[in-house]
Amino acid sequence: MGVRYNESADTFSFALVLLCLAVGDVDYVRKLGKFVSTSTYATGWRPAIPAELDSACPDLAKLISEMWDHDIHKRPPLKAVVPRIEAASSADLDDFVPNIGREDVGVVAEEEDHAAAIAALRSEIVAQAATIATQAAKIEAQAAKIEAQAAKIGFTR
């Protein structure tokens, strides 16, 4: 695509992961796009954010949308994503029932029977997402230091 790789690509990818985690289906994006390549995203295609997720946790839905903005300069840095994920309370998601593959196996379960398990999984997902974003931000900071040191000694790519 002619643009030098930077943190915004990681932010974009993390938005896709975050969406899949939020809807409870790791294949969510693949199911919507059938065959998704980088050129698909370059044309502006983005997976739909379920209306249920948008109404249950609008802050998370807005964050995901910002993270995959077509303009890479509008995407938030990963270090700014972490506090926003933490602020998007998992309590906001309590009424949102993700697609956890029940229809794929033909099992229809009562939501009340699984509420505690879903709440625990959501809490774990939010914690893991924050950890991933924190680690990515640390890696980006280290990369910036290395690039600065390389520039000092006159090294260029």
Descriptive account of the structure:
About 8% of the residues have low confidence. The protein is globular, with a radius of gyration of 18 Å. Helix 1 runs antiparallel to helix 5, helix 1 runs antiparallel to helix 7 and helix 6 packs antiparallel against helix 7. It has one domain. 21% of the residues are buried. With 157 residues, the chain is mostly helical.
Q: Helicity level, as a percent range?
A: 55-70%
Sum up the overall morphology in one term.
globular
What proportion of the residues form beta strands (DSSP E)?
under 5%
Query: Over all CA atoms, what is the radius of gyration?
Result: 18 Å
Poorly predicted residue ranges: 100-112
- Tell me the series of helices and strands, N- to C-terminal: HHHHHHH
Mean pLDDT: 76
- Sheet with the most strands, sense and barrel status: none
Terminal-residue CA separation: 18 Å
Strand element count: 0
Oligomeric composition of the shown chains: single chain
